[in-house]
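Q: I have 231 residues here and want to know how they pack in 3D. Can you give me a structure?
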Amino acid sequence: MTALKCVAIDDEPLALEILKKYIAEFPDLQLLHTFEDAVSGAEFLKKNKVDLLFIDIDMPDITGVDLVRSLTEKPMIVFTTAYKNFAFEGFELQALDYLLKPISLKRFSASVNKVLDYARYKNAEDAQDESLYVHSEYRMIKINLRDIEYIESMQDYIKIYLLNTEKPILTLMSLKSVLEKLPASQFIRIHRSFVVAKSQIKSIHNRKVKLNSIELPVGNNYSDFIRDWSK
């Protein structure tokens, strides 16, 4: 794997120096630039391809969270901050990690390993169709496609329900986005809120799809599914 192109943004010069020192310890990371000014950093990110962004959350001109939200193409994100209460905002933006200052080299190393694992997973996901990788609760989860029963949309999030598992996996992703990652031969959308595994369909009756554990409605805009299934 080629080295990940990195940028670090922090209004504290000492914090940036520590990040520069730590990044230099890892041959899999290539530091392109550091910025004390968040606005300048945002402009650089909008004009250059960056794989990984280390960014402080609490900055004077624009917060790290708002800066990340403003990016059309988001790199992998690791937030840094001196405050514990920003953790949920990092989760909302699918940050890979959340580093609390002062950052030790040991903790930074663990974060880099998490990032590298994610990058490898993304590459592997493009190369095969048997698994789906999703980001949930600050970690990557590998899901075997054969274990998925159905997927439910919850506005900006989706819940992935697995066979023989009570608790679904929650991840920040649209139903449309996850459907693009799934093979059409194995999964189908039956409602604006539901995608089901074809192999788990037991019967269809009165515009309802019966699976192993639940019955789901067929949406009005997905009536073709019933006709095609009955052929």
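Q: Anything worth noting?
A: The chain is about 30% helix and 30% strand. Helices lie at 13-23, 38-47, 64-70, 87-92, 105-127, 175-181, 223-229.
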